[in-house]
Amino acid sequence: MKNNDFSFTIKRIRFDEHYQPADSTRITTNFANLARGEWRQQNLRNALNMINNRFNALAQWDNPKGDRYSVELDIISVAVDIAGKGDVFPSIEVLKTHIVDHKTNERIEGIVGNNFSSYVRDYDFSVLLREHNKQQAQFSVPDNFGELHGKLFKNFVSSDAYKQHFNKPPVICLSVSDNKVYRRTENQHPVLGVEYLANESSLTEQYFNKMGLQVRYFMPANSVAPLAFHFVGDLLNDYSNLELISTISTMETFQKIYRPEIYNANAVAGKSYQPNLKNQDHSITQIVYDREERRKLAIAQGRFAEEHFIKPHRATLEQWSANCD
């Protein structure tokens, strides 16, 4: 297979208080989890209000009432067609932000990425890694772990489909790891905030590195813990302040919902910081989220990827991956 033997199809749907997940949407995604059940519309409305309030708090210049901006979110769903056979598989889902300036009536391009969801990643972490370690005396990682997923992602970002829809590389914003220690530095960015350095690399970061993404950790003003920013190129200079704020406000809101022990903690990260998912000294948002359900669904959707993508196309994928730079 040649590198261009994969083709990608991109679809987008607005994430707002009326959002309802399509049948094809990965139900483990953060946004789909919020959009189900009795409290779905209230969940969505509250989350969007949190995003807008946080955005205006960070974009405070020429914004005396704190209501100049609002954020619009699109869910970007990417499907991959292997070797042009019409055998399409849902690949990844990310979020795209737009910023609405109510003072100038402009709609400003934001960042693509933010959240990151992938069937193949579910397979790697929830199926392959788990089964590999059932046979091991101590934790280890399979050979070539994440290689295929990383090459698929890089192939997508360099594809014509990506370039037709997006004019800058993606930025993925994730929670920091609870098994690492982060040390505060003297480096400070006017929007991203104070930078932290990690004592070691996590498996997730190594996985994202194979996707062509490097990582830096920043704690924005009035946050309580650093966020992990995965990016290509120069995070501090390739994106405008408003673009960066759109990602911070969106992903910090999601993290407050999903990781309140870290991002809604009542104590601020100090000079040396280790996240603690058992921290009881935190506040809960008024948004219903089922973390255990999401864990179970990750396994189910990893099995789905195994059955419908990995096994039927194994020979093709292995040949492509071996020949891919």
Automatic annotation (TrEMBL):
Q: Which InterPro entries match?
A: MesX
Q: What is this protein called?
A: DUF1852 domain-containing protein
Naturally occurring in which organism (per UniProt):
Rheinheimera maricola
